[in-house]
Specification:
The chain has 304 residues and is α/β, with parallel strands linked by helices. 27% of the residues lie in helices and 27% in strands. It contains 8 helices and 16 strands. The protein has helices at residues 69-81, 141-152, 164-168, 179-196, 200-203, 254-265, 278-286, 294-303, and strands at 14-16, 22-24, 29-36, 40-46, 56-57, 60-62, 88-97, 102-110, 123-129, 158-163, 198-199, 209-210, 213-219, 245-250, 270-274, 290-292. Strands 3, 4, 5, 6, 7, 8, 9, 11 and 12 form a 9-stranded mixed beta sheet that branches.
Length: 304
């Protein structure tokens, strides 16, 4: 970073490691890897005077005080490259944690190709680069080291299929008096989980955190439940994008609807079915899904 670069936030400062190495960002740093299946990866050619200048890497920078890694990555990408949040869907996050400093790479899928624009003096150029061509560029060392593992997960789609009746019925909170309302309350909580994401260790997947698509299957008196206003859709510029949360009504048999959904997703997604019904667990597992109990999901929701 140039010595003349203005300090705008307490986070805009160097951190020195035990071996004397320096890292930018008092509160850590974050970058955004934007992926479009046809256009490739959005990369930034760093200006020569910057840290590891004249290399290619991701739009990103120091996190502000009290700023989440996701918000920092989205903010920096918008400031440096004009990345429109409304076109993004979060996929996963990888974290390099050195104890005294960390760097988070937030990976997002762009729903359509857009033209990036240089927004500050740190960029020489911005370019969509085909995946196979990334390694042919002189890369920032940090990005070069992380790229193989990031690329390996670019096309992984994670879907949670939730047995609404089973999850709602697992707690005696009066749900039987208003089954539709209980399903909608669960849907609202799932929207919050979709925004926060799920730790990779909870899903048995690599990387720090994943943002799954969520399908809530409802049946019986809960059919007709709707997502609360403002949930389940990208929030647009100025708000964090939310992965989709969709309610799937099962007019007859909720278990069959869940197994059918798993079958449709087979080979297209890493699917996790949430139910404590043992027979449904067996059927979903036979169809190719991982299975978690209702308590697992409620624990994630309560931890929010």
């Amino acid at each position: 970073m140039s010595p003349s670069y203005p300090v705008r936030d307490p986070g805009d400062a160097w951190v020195q490691g035990p071996d004397g190495s320096r890292f930018w960002g008092r509160f850590g740093a974050a970058g955004l890897l934007v992926h479009h299946p046809d256009a490739g990866i959005l990369l930034q050619h760093r200006v020569e005077w910057s840290h590891y200048g004249d290399t290619w890497g991701l739009p990103g920078g120091a996190r502000n005080e009290h700023e989440s890694a996701v918000r920092g990555a989205l903010r920096e990408a918008h400031e440096e490259a004009g990345v429109p949040e409304r076109l993004l869907r979060l996929r996963f996050m990888s974290v390099r944690d050195l104890g005294f400093w960390s760097y988070a790479t937030v990976v997002a899928l762009a729903s359509e190709r857009f033209e990036p624009r240089i927004g500050d003096p740190e960029s020489v150029a911005l370019r969509w680069v085909p995946e196979d061509a990334v390694v042919r560029l002189p890369l920032h060392p940090g990005f070069a080291a992380s790229w193989p593992a990031l690329r390996a997960e670019l096309y992984r789609r994670v879907v949670l299929v939730v047995d609404g009746a089973n999850v709602v019925g697992s707690r005696p909170d009066g749900w039987w008096r208003d089954r539709r309302g209980a399903a909608e309350r669960l849907a609202a909580r799932l929207a919050g989980l979709a925004e926060r994401g799920v730790p990779g260790v909870e899903l048995g997947l690599p990387q720090e955190r994943w943002w799954p698509e969520i399908v809530l299957v409802v049946e019986g008196a809960a059919v007709g439940a709707a997502m609360p206003a403002g949930t389940g859709e990208p929030a647009g510029e100025g708000g964090e994008p939310l992965p989709s949360v969709r309610i799937l009504p099962a007019e007859r048999d909720g278990d069959a609807a869940i197994v059918d959904a798993v079958g449709r997703l087979s080979g297209q997604a890493s699917t996790v079915v949430v139910t404590s019904d043992r027979e449904l667990q067996r059927r979903a597992g036979s169809a190719g899904a991982d299975v978690r109990g209702a308590g697992w999901l409620l624990g994630l929701l309560d931890a929010g």
